[in-house]
Amino acid sequence: MFDYTFQWNQALARLPRMLDGAVVTLEVAVLSMLIGIVFAMILTLMRLSDSRPLKAIAATWIEIARNTPALLQIYMAHFGVASFGIHFSPFTSLLIGITFNNAGYLAENFRGALKAIPDTQARAGRSLGMSSLQSFRYIIVPQMLRISFLPMTNQMVWAVLMTSLGVTVGMNTDLYGVTQDLNALTFRTFELFAIAAVIFYIITKIITLGARLIASRLFRY
Amino acid sequence: MFETSLTAADFLFLAKGAGMTIIVTAISVVIGTILGILFGVIRVQLGAILSAPLTFFLDIFRSVPLLIQLVLANAFLGMVLKLQLSGFFVACMVLSLYTSAYCAEIVRGGIDAVPATTRRAARSLGMTWVQDMRHIVMPLATRVALPSWIGLALGVMKDSALVYVVQVTELLKSTQILITRLQEPLFLLLICGAFYFIISFPLARFGGYLEKRWSND
Amino acid sequence: MKKSALTAGVIAAACIAGAAHADKLDDIIGSGKLRCAVVLDFPPMGMRDDKNEPIGFDVDYCNDLAAALGVTAEIVETPFPERIPALMSGRVDVGVASTSDTLERAKTVGFTVPYFAFEMAVTANNETGIASYEDMKGHTVGAVAGTYEAIALEAQVNEWGDGTFRPYQTQADVFLALSQGQLDATVSTSTVAQATVNSGNFDGISVVGKAPFDTDYVALFTNRNEYGLLNYLDLFVNQQVRTGRYAELYEKWVGGDLPSLVVPDVYR
User: Fold this and answer.
1) Which of A112, B47, B115, B192 has the greatest number of CB atoms lying within 10 Å of its CB?
2) Are residues C66 and C106 in the same domain?
3) Is the pLDDT of residue C153 over 90?
4) What is the pLDDT of residue A221?
5) How many domains does chain C have?
6) Which of A67-71, C67-71, C80-84 has the weakest average pLDDT?
């Protein structure tokens, strides 16, 4: 009945290549998070502005990012936009796709966080002589980031998991891509993907534990 | 704007894919929610230490890419255990557990949001644990949990786009098959995206509305 | 009376033992259904007609095999990377999926004798000016992840030390990327290249020459311990050639010079 022979040594011999892939996966995730946060800030400002077109653009971005599959967004960033003659490498396409997604979700988190900050605080800043931008920058943003720190950690974990979708746009240097390549070569599907799963698990644990550590340092008061 | 060679038969083909997306999502959300409520209540009742194995098990589904979960489950059930399962079954099974892992967190958060004093009051009125759960905890926890649950259900629908790896032809896979034949990637991807959006957007809005309404009183 | 009961018992035992020892060949004949893994974005071997039904050389080959076994064929679409997992998980019985018979893969599955042989061709985007295999040096090239040609091409790019190699998950994605200009050139089987360029679906790409890779022999595959079935499949491939059906199918789907399935200077 159970005549499947596990050949772990065949898969473990490829561990160094997979670890190289894990580094690329982290690279994409971190970059997409950093750029995503910047775009989410811009989207949040656009939403707060009085300009209707700006509001509409921000709302469109956020709703599309939140209401369509990430795989579709990444596929679109590669094969979709190429219909307009715009070409991105697999790495860039994946980065754009995940960043687009991150920015949409983070902007929504920021909006929720802003609601939790009383209006009076910004007004207090203004009455201390700050410009409206200054009061946003020094009073609102730090609190906003603090309130949305947990959702940001979750989004970071999501970003790591989403890198696995890069294979659909020709990416083969990230952890999932490397594993898929090795699988096509050797067909040791279960062993290879089990090792990949363990590496992913460790990465996400490091992120959540690291975030908790940072939070306990930063938000002691 | 678009010249297309998309025929009525192709639309029917896409509709079939969309139907598959909805069926897989519906089955997984229903089973995942039942399991999630069960796991969530068990975790609250047993406490952190006793429920640690369950917590660890559920955490795996939230820490490993869904694509890998599907490939591994498929390889393990089929290649190692030699079970003759359809791709559809494997897809629903993995997505159900995936859903339950997130749902358990939501349920736990909901129960924790019910003040301990309220529950003690219920028990001191002579209510049994079941009565307390049924008449006090459930209505209060649902208010906290429902908006997140709607978000989860929609998330599962979007994530179901990945079940193509176990040979289930859902909406996105159907779209790719048509792209292969018709070579109109942008147009077809837009149709596919529009479908997800039309289902997801109103429900997400409704969830946001509930959240706002219920948090104000 | 006693004797007949004993006989019945022996017959029953033999039946049970027989059932327990049934191999895959018996299972297929017994179930009346042959499930073939076929890659359907690999024209002209496997593709879909305008009703989205599977057609192609491999589809016909599977139908012939089913007819020979006296069962009905069921085509299971499997992307290239999913061919072997689909077999190992019992979702298909036989792979009729243009699979190269590499030694690495033979550690996992059992291959028959070759049932088809591919030459490799270079297809390029017209705007790049690539006119031969060597011209690809320094360009962005790609192929279907995990295939024979992808492995050889990636090795070549590394040897040149110049240019980029990109694997896509499906043959369709490769040609889509090529016609969009995301890839400058690709190496694929010449049959697929010709069929794709002739389909007229892709603008601005053309087959520019041969790739100097060894002939890519492809074989049917099934579980490596199913000798009964493997024997049957070997004979089936042999009969397809002997009866002229192989030539007929080749003419129907590909056309031109019929490739020899005999590897020179060696048995098997």
Assistant:
1) B192
2) yes
3) yes
4) 59
5) 2
6) C80-84
pLDDT at A1: 41
Q: Is C188 helix (H, G, I), strand (E, B) or coil?
A: strand
C108 and C221 inside one domain: yes
Query: Is residue C99 located within the same domain as residue C44?
Result: yes
CATH architecture classification, A16-218:
Orthogonal Bundle (1.10)
The answer, yes or no, to whether residue C10 has pLDDT greater than 70, is no
Q: In what order do the strands lie in the sheet with C120-125?
A: C164-168, C140-144, C185-189, C120-125, C205-210
Residue A39, amino acid: F
Q: Which residues pair with B75 in a beta bridge?
A: none
Report if residue C10 sits inside a domain.
Answer: no
- Burial call C235-252: b when 16+ CB within 10 Å, e when fewer: ebbeebbeeeebeebbee
Q: Are residues C236 and C188 in the same domain?
A: no
Cβ–Cβ < 8 Å for B182, A61: no
Do C50 and C74 share a structural domain? yes
Question: CA of A88: which chain C residue's CA is closest?
Answer: C182
Give the Cα separation of B41 and C89 in Å (integer). 35
* Residues of chain A found within 8 Å of residue C176, distances taken between Cβ atoms: 79
SS3 A144: helix
Q: What is the mean pLDDT of chain A?
A: 91
Q: Tell me, what CATH number does C92's domain have?
A: 3.40.190.10
Distance, CA of A79 to CA of A87 (rounded, Å): 8
Give the nearest chain C residue to A82 (CA atoms): C180
Query: What number is the ipTM of this complex?
Result: 0.88
**Element (DSSP H or E) covering residue C208:** strand C205-210
Q: Which domains does chain B have, with CATH numbers?
A: 8-215 (1.10.3720.10)
Instruction: Summarize pLDDT for B96-152 with one digit per residue, the tens.
Output: 999 999 999 999 999 999 999 999 999 999 999 999 999 999 999 998 899 899 999
Interface test with A, best of C180, C186, C225 (most A CBs within 10 A): C180
Q: Supply the pTM of this predicted model.
A: 0.85
Residue B69: pLDDT over 60:
yes
Average pLDDT over residues A20-40: 96
Is C106 domain-assigned? yes
- Determine, yes or no, domain membership for C88: yes
Is residue C7 a part of any domain in this protein?
Answer: no
Size of interface A-B (CB pairs under 8 A): 100
Co-location of C36 and C54 in the same domain: yes
**pLDDT score recorded for residue A5:** 76
Interface test with B, best of A62, A67, A109 (most B CBs within 10 A): A67
Q: Which of C210, C226, C245 is the last residue of a domain?
A: C210
Q: Is the pLDDT of residue A28 over 50?
A: yes
Domain with C184, as residue range(s), is 120-210
Pure H helices in chain C: 2-21, 24-31, 57-69, 83-88, 103-106, 148-160, 171-180, 190-198, 227-242, 245-253
Q: Are residues C169 and C222 in the same domain?
A: no
Same domain, C91 and C104: yes
Query: Does the distance separating the beta carbons of C202 and B183 come in below 8 Å?
Result: yes
Q: Where are the domains of chain A?
A: 16-218
Residues on chain B bordering chain A, Cβ-to-Cβ distance under 8 angstroms: 60, 62-69, 71-72, 75-76, 79-82, 154, 158-159, 161-162, 172, 179, 185-186, 189-190, 192-193, 196-197, 200-201, 204
Best mutation target among C35, C50, C52, C89 (most B Cβ atoms within 10 Å) is C89
Say yes or no for a CB contact (<8 Å) between A194 and B72: yes
